[in-house]
């Protein structure tokens, strides 16, 4: 039952679907946190998670994958540029195009989005790009 509770809590708090990272990845993360706290069973750890916001943050840090790079999977950048040029901009010529990049770890993805828009010929004052990540690391 504790595994289900932990999965449900992570789904609620951060929108994590275990299938996206794999059950074994989650299990290893939970085991590392349990070892760090000298907790020997999943039920006790599930209770700790429910009562400690700090421990929940620690588990989230353990679960997230800290990777980032420029132009990660080029197709979304091409699709965004084409959408901006062909669909959004013709209908919103006087508006600012706003882009949110999440997750983005150390920021290579938002920089890639910015470079894509600039390379498409759009002036910097016609768009904004913001990056966020759940991890403090």
What report would you give on this structure?
- The protein is mostly helical.
- It has 7 helices and 2 strands, in the order ααααααβαβ.
- Strand 1, helix 7 (108-119) and strand 2 form a beta-alpha-beta unit.
Question: Secondary-structure map with pairings?
Answer:
Layout: H1 2-14, H2 18-21, H3 23-37, H4 42-51, H5 53-63, H6 74-91, E1 97-101, H7 108-119, E2 127-131
Parallel strand pairs: 1-2
Task: Give a brief description.
The chain has seven helices and two strands; from the N terminus they run H-H-H-H-H-H-E-H-E.
Features:
single chain, 137 residues, mainly alpha, two-stranded parallel ribbon, 61% helix
Radius of gyration: 20 Å
Q: Helical proportion?
A: 55-70%
Count every helix, treating DSSP H or I runs of 4 or more residues as helices. 7
State the total count of DSSP E strands.
2
Return the average pLDDT rounded to an integer: 89
Question: How would the global form be characterised?
Answer: elongated
Strand order of the largest sheet: 1-2
Based on secondary structure, the structural category is mainly alpha
Largest sheet: 2 strands, parallel
Strand content of the residues, in percent? 5-15%
Poorly predicted tracts of residues: none
**Kindly, what is the distance between the CA atoms of the first and last residues, rounded to a whole number of angstroms?**
31 Å
The assembly state of the depicted protein chains is single chain
Compressed to H and E, one letter per element, the order equals HHHHHHEHE
């Amino acid at each position: 039952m504790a595994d289900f509770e932990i999965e449900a809590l992570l789904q609620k708090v951060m929108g994590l679907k275990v299938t996206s990272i794999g059950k074994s990845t989650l299990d290893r993360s939970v085991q590392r946190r349990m070892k760090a706290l000298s907790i020997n069973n999943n039920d006790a750890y599930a209770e700790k998670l429910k009562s400690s916001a700090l421990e929940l943050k620690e588990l989230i840090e353990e679960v997230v994958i800290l990777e980032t790079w420029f132009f990660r999977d080029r197709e979304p950048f091409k699709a965004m540029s084409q959408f901006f040029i062909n669909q959004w901009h013709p209908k919103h010529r006087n508006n600012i195009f706003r882009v949110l990049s999440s997750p983005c770890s150390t920021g290579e993805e938002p920089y890639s989005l910015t470079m894509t828009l600039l390379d498409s010929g759009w002036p910097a004052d016609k768009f904004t790009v913001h990056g966020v990540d759940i991890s403090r690391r």
